[in-house]
């Protein structure tokens, strides 16, 4: 019997998605469309220091002749050949582009849709590395390197390869966040939606909380999915429902987890077994099954993708009263590292975060002064701080962090 339910987002009064923190920096360089700068006032003229003799323009000569487009021939001869190529993209192959793009998997293998932006982006960086952000390209395009200015002798800056690309926030990805009815999962779902992605907000049993989290998502195209992750069938139904609802899975965040105390000295053998089973079924096997199914969809589509696991500091520090939980998180970290290696050839990056205590409903009664004092900051994390790291790990720029286990514990546990 299917126990997965799906609900679509009613987006009547949604605001357009806000710009993410990774959004390109504003271009401060003047463009041809910019109005000319105000002419300096007389007082400004008076206050301006005199131009040094060496930089004065000879009478009758145009400014362009004094400030050439590149270094002078003599200066250029002093630059090593490899630096000159790096400075001048047109010297690389005559077009300014690398020829490796022929090895990029075709995004056209999957169904074509507005998601092809993310398809092309993930696929291209799998071979070439991440594209240059718009702000970087604009910066280089519109200003001369400082070494090209007369009178400066510093070595030329390396100009990174440019590839035309839409702004980050205009690429809408299909993102599945498991266990997002509250706490960290809810903050992660919100962060992706705020960036402009379409989110499948999954939950297990707290329908009311999940509906409230769903209603608070900014943007459009989201789906609310209920499903039990403790069984292989439940995981399969979840991924199938999300794939149908969003059309794809570009990013998977394995966040859902179960936890309950079972200190070894006070727990009967029967209760011990039951606790281990319940916890591993969700935290490890549920994440493994959803990862398998989502990764197979990503591979089939040929678009690359991202998997981010929500692990725990407890994997490294120990969980005396919750040993199955600590073990499940250590296993989840290891699973992420194995998948990072196995899935890299498909352009899929896999990473984990290992938070210390986070201010969520689940652990609210455990957040004592002693716990807050574990960090030299004297506090625990906010869910949004975990979400920001997950957002980055799922970004095109973070592909090289694949395989990492990122500590997010406010220096409460250094390893
Ligand atoms: N809070 C912390 O201090 C902390 C520290 C380190 C790591 N973490 C990790 O961060 C993640 C989120 O933590 P949190 O504190 O936000 O947890 P939480 O509030 O308890 O949320 C857990 C989520 O998992 C879902 N879930 C649990 N069992 C499920 C099942 N069998 N099937 C489907 N969904 C299930 C829950 O759904 P329902 O509520 O709808 O049942 C809920 O949405 C977890 O992986 C946790 O281990 C948390």
Automatic annotation (TrEMBL):
TM spans (from-to): none
InterPro entries: Sc_DH/Rdtase_CS, SDR_fam
Pfam families in UniProt: adh_short_C2
CDD domains per UniProt: SDR_c
Residue spans of biased composition, Basic residues class: 1-11, 73-84, 149-166
Compositionally biased region (Low complexity): 60-71, 101-110
Keywords carried by this UniProt record: Oxidoreductase
PROSITE patterns: ADH_SHORT
Similarity field: Belongs to the short-chain dehydrogenases/reductases (SDR) family.
Protein name as it appears in the record: SDR family oxidoreductase
Source taxonomy: Bacteria, Bacillati, Actinomycetota, Actinomycetes, Kitasatosporales
């Amino acid at each position: 019997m299917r126990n997965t339910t799906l609900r679509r987002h009613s987006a009547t009064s949604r605001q357009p998605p806000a710009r993410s923190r990774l959004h390109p920096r504003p271009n401060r360089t003047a463009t041809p469309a910019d109005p000319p700068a105000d002419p300096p006032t007389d007082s400004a003229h008076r206050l301006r220091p005199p131009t040094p003799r060496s930089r004065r323009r000879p009478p009758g000569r145009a400014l362009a002749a004094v400030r050439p487009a590149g270094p002078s021939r003599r200066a250029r001869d002093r630059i090593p050949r490899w630096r000159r190529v790096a400075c001048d993209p047109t010297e690389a192959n005559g077009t300014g582009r690398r020829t490796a793009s022929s090895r990029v998997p075709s995004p056209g293998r999957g169904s074509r849709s507005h998601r092809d932006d993310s398809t092309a982006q993930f696929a291209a960086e799998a071979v070439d590395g991440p594209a240059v952000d718009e702000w970087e390209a604009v910066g280089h395009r519109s200003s001369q390197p400082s070494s090209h200015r007369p009178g400066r002798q510093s070595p030329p800056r390396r100009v990174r390869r440019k590839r035309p690309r839409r702004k980050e926030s205009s690429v809408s990805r299909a993102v599945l966040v498991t266990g997002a009815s509250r706490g960290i999962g809810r903050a992660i779902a919100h962060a992706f939606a705020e960036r402009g992605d379409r989110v499948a907000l999954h939950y297990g049993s707290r329908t009311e909380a999940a509906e409230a989290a769903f209603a608070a998502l900014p943007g459009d195209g989201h789906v609310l999915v209920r499903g039990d992750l403790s069984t292989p069938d439940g995981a399969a139904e979840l991924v199938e429902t999300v794939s149908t609802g969003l059309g794809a899975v570009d990013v998977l965040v394995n966040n859902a987890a179960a936890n309950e105390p079972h200190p070894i000295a006070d727990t009967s053998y029967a209760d011990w077994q039951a606790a281990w089973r319940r916890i591993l079924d969700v935290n490890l096997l549920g994440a493994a099954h959803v990862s398998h199914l989502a990764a197979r969809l990503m591979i089939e589509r040929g678009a690359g993708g991202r998997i981010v696991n929500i692990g725990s500091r407890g994997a490294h520090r120990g969980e005396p009263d919750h040993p199955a939980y600590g073990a499940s998180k250590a296993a989840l970290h290891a699973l992420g590292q194995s998948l990072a290696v196995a899935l890299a050839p498909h352009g899929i990056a896999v990473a984990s975060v290992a938070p210390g205590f986070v201010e969520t409903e689940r652990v609210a009664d455990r957040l004592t002064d002693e716990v807050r004092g574990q960090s030299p900051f004297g506090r625990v994390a906010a869910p949004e701080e975990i979400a920001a790291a997950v957002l980055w790990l799922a970004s095109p720029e973070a592909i090289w962090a694949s395989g990492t286990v990122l500590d997010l514990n406010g220096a409460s546990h250094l390893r």
